[in-house]
Amino acid sequence: MNNNSPFVNEVIKDSLLSIGDEMFAALARTSMSPIIYEVLDYACGLTDAQGNLVSQGNGVTSFIGMLSPMVKSVIADHKDDLYEGDIIIINDPYTGGGSHLSDVGLVMPIFSDGKIVAFSANKGHWTEVGGKDPGSFTNDATEIYQEGIQLPGVKLFEKGKLNKAVEKIISTNVRLPKLSIGDMWAQVAALRTGAKRFVELCNSYGSDTVTDVIDNLIKSSETYALKELALLPRGSFEAEDFIEGDPKKGGPYNIKVKVTITDDEFICDYRGSHPQVTNPVNCSYYGLVASVRVMFLAILRPKFNITEGLFKPLRIITDKQSIVSAERPAPVSMNFEARLGGAELIWKALAPSLPDRLSAGHLLSVCSVTLSGVHPDTNDDFLIVEPSVGGWGAGDNHDGQGGQFCMGDGETYNVPIEVAEIKYGVRVKEYSFRDDSSGAGEFIGGKGVVRSYEILSDKQHLSASYGRFSFKPWGMNGGNDGASSLIKVYRKDGEIVGPFGVSTRMELNKGDVAQLVTPSGGGYGDPKLRDKGKVKLDVKNEFFSEEEAEKLFDVRLNDD
Amino acid sequence: MRVATDIGGTFTDLIYIDNEGNMGFDKAHSTPPNFENGIIDVIDKSGISFESIDMFFHGSTVVINTLTERKGAKVGLITTKGIRDVLEIARGNRPDLYNFKYEKPKPFVERYLRKEVEERMDYKGEVLQPLNKQDVIDIVDYFKQEKVEAIAVCLLHAYKNPIHEQEVVRIVQAIWPGIPVSASSEITKEWREYERTNTAVLNSYVKPILNTYINNLSNRLSDHHYDGIKYIMQSNGGVTTFESAKDYPINLVESGPVAGIYGAAVLGEMIGESNIIAFDIGGTTAKCSLINNGEVRVTTDYYIERSEKGAGYPIKAPVVDIVEIGNGGGSIAWIDELGSLKVGPQSAGSNPGPVCYGQGGEQPTTTDANLLVGRLSEKNFDYQVNKQPVNNAIKEVVADKFTTTTEEAALGIIEMANSNMLNALKLISVRKGYNPSEFTMIAFGGGGPMHAAELARNLGMKKVIVPFSASVFSAWGMLMTDIRHDYIQTYLQKLNRIEFNEINNLWNKMEQEALEQYTEENIQNERVIFNKFVDLRYEGQEHTVKVPITNDAWDANFIKNLKNKFHELHEQSYTFILPDAEVEIVNLHLTGFGQVEKHKLRKLEETGATLEETTLEYRNVYFRDQGWVEIPIHSRNLLDPSHVVMGPAIIEESTSSTLILDNQKAEIDAFGNIIIEIEVEKVYEQ
């Protein structure tokens, strides 16, 4: 096809999309870290020459809001100092695209005819970036300096040549350099693939045609966003909630939002939320932006490629140095707590007005687990860093889904028992839906999950952050609340520790069992309205007992 | 005589080759739900006698249809204590990232039919806790009460040590004779409990249906006095006997489609092409697969119903590595929310079908667009074709939206369809590190020959082959297959920690088990050929690279060569190597081919027609930048090997049309295949 075709735009658009996908697939296939290849905790994408998002391959939701601000901050920083073959490395949480130090970003300018026409960028969760604790999640960090190495947007490659000093600084500062450097190379390979494909596209159609298509693409998605916005109710909607945190450090922390929807703006005002804390549950303003963008997409539900244009109506207001807009040196390694907490507030505020688009409250928390120790058979060090699945809320004509990752995750995979038992010094005693009577409603909440690790060697250390421990996922329109999370440790000698939601480097020894229980989702609508046949099947499936069927749903099993 | 029948949604295809090498084919309408009737119909229609058949090959969509239509058996699952919900928790992923009302795939077994037994293996395959037999007995009683129709068994680490699964199966069979039961380790010896459980469950789910189907078909063939050898096509590109198909029906999940890919490899071997891109366009989908050095790639990374919107269901059965997209002749053109033109994946199917069928279809399809621009002839349809409604539909849906002419809009539809197919073709070639210019395209299916030349040119390929019998090529592929079995065993070990004795013994054991299976199928051992592969990765990676190896015994030198080969393939696929990283094995993969004797192809009889005499008509065809151009339309049946057809031209036969573009040249080879040479416009780098 040549440029005279009125449909050439369509073909270029398709190609842009597939470039994002190709970069994404390439990275997963070469990464060495389970957090990347199983959890898919990374994203790859293209932006235009100004850093506006054009196409993206995503594994988890939040990255959708990080790549383009990251590229923009690199552009602002390096301005006229970018050359063909340069690759910039950045993990600064307090600047554009920042989240926590574990998420390491790479940005590469793409040249055609001697000028920058686009950027390829990616960001991945490295298993290890140093800091005071293995895995670089530090429940008790008080400053960012304890959380790992900071990479403030420096050139990893200059005109195609590796800056060995930077590589050496990184490999010296992390505990598992093979993993981290391996992932770095996987990211570099993906960037180069994206750049090469983009240049091919420019060679086929001319870079002017390609950049025109990109401009149109961004404009038309902005038009779409405004059209969808018009379908939402006008007015202001408020919600409040809490981010869990150490009571000794003033936790839990209050957060609040006022969402105002106008003809051309969707304003999220977080003023009045708790000031930043010396707990790593803070997020920076840019972290918040990333998650609010996710929430905005869940409300707009676009069925096409996502570009910068969709986010044009979004406006986010915060106080300075609040728990959702933290500044250096506030610790942020658990930033997903504030990020997701802040984003879910919008959900909670709008759900009653948008039952066709939003459901009751879900697990909300990443429910992250870090377990380190020595494998009893190989004597190799092992390190588990994993999110956990839990229950989602029910909605209009929709039972909540059980055993799913939270809104911040996405195309994220749990670690199979058979894989875990080979690699780690644990045995999985149980992986099943929890037995609670929560989330009753006309449509019932999805179940949280119990995962029990029997510890097979001494001196293992468990750090976990299970949100929704003190507060339950909320029910909606008369549905019951879900169930909160909890962790219990059954010591070999019979002692039971817990329940608790957060632990920091808790020592576990051979024969101990750590039982990790994730939240169940909220119910929707009056339980008495639930279809009798469904209640009977719920009982047969042992999600509710006969007594609960009678008490909660007013259904007696024997009267047919 | 050997006969192959291939059942599709619309047509049942038949192809035969007699003892002199003469070939013929025919098509009849499929007859759901009793598909075996369509088979008898097409044999009758073709005029061959049942008595003359020596070998009967069959491809069927009955397994995939049973799954997608949810018409299988009521299955009960027996699994290890503590993990009955694994089948429903699945992997927890949400491909539709921003859909906060996502519905995960509903498991094929309800929770109340997922029962646990006390038993436990560790990852080394050592028994931690013996099987509690009473648990099994109690569960079978319960399943009887619940009127379960088939049972699946999946226990932790059974891929490493299957004795507990085997014991459960024995107990079930002893106390409930006749109930279909499958253990995960019989079907797959790969790790990952969810994937294995799902595979075992789906195998049991389709087992009773497939058994009935095969029994009915056998009986119908017996009624017609055919009691000879009967083979059925598996997803791995080989055939198996009717009897073993009954035990492992899940191995038939892609029974039909893969035969064409395998056929392309065989045809390539016959005519001296070992690097092939096989490309098949049907009514609703296009499929492609890359054959490197004559080797058809087989993978167990297979899912049904997987999409951007849903996680789908994994099946750990060996399946030819095919990329399939929702773009076929019946794919519908539409405009999305942003005003972009899209084609597919929605299809008009056979009912109502494209607008031109005149059966009530109102949305324009790729076939309609091809008709409108003159690439397809209205005379070459089964239906009475009326162009006016086609014109109207394309004008209303596309042309008016883009304020362009109807011809331009039709061309736009074709270009969008081509763009989708081009992406699929790039996915299997350029993106995997293969240079398309080093490959030949073999194009088949009803629509393959129509689109091939244009796509090959865009990919920088030099040659396209449109095989004789292109429209029933999958059935032809079946005639050419061997009895193939794939044995894949997860064996996690670093290359530098391998004990040569252990691994050589393991290979021997796998070969012995394979030979036993062939013996059961009446294939003599000397006719069995083995190919070996290992799935390797850098330590810590998840995904593996499949590396072909020789049949030599393993020693230090072997490992050294293997490592080098792996680095090389890793670099080809992923652009880099990690020379210092450790390399580890994940799976051993043994492929057995029980060789079936094949007939030689017969050369085409020449018609002696002149090129002018092969010209059916001169027709106006619309091209980009040139507008309407009058080009010659040749009859494929009249073309001889001496003829050279210069593009632009079209070669027509009753079941397909081959488009040849400017600067392209087509010839017929001695076997009746059309060979198109393409001027290379660009070459992709890796």
UniProtKB/TrEMBL annotation, chain A:
One of its GO terms (cellular component) is cytosol. InterPro entries: Hydantoinase_B (IPR003692), Oxoprolinase-like (IPR045079). GO terms for molecular function: 5-oxoprolinase (ATP-hydrolyzing) activity. Residues 6-527 form the Hydantoinase B/oxoprolinase domain. It holds the Pfam family Hydantoinase_B. GO terms for biological process: glutathione metabolic process. This is 5-oxoprolinase. It comes from Lentibacillus populi.
UniProtKB/TrEMBL annotation, chain B:
InterPro entries: ACX-like_C, ATPase_NBD, Hydant_A_N, Hydantoinase_A, Oxoprolinase-like. One of its GO terms (cellular component) is cytosol. Residues 196-486 form the Hydantoinase A/oxoprolinase domain. GO terms for biological process: glutathione metabolic process. It holds the Pfam family Hydant_A_C. Transmembrane segments: none annotated. GO terms for molecular function: 5-oxoprolinase (ATP-hydrolyzing) activity. Residues 501-671 form the Acetophenone carboxylase-like C-terminal domain. Residues 2-174 form the Hydantoinase/oxoprolinase N-terminal domain. It comes from the Bacteria. This is 5-oxoprolinase. It comes from Lentibacillus populi. The lineage of its organism: Bacteria, Bacillati, Bacillota, Bacilli, Bacillales.
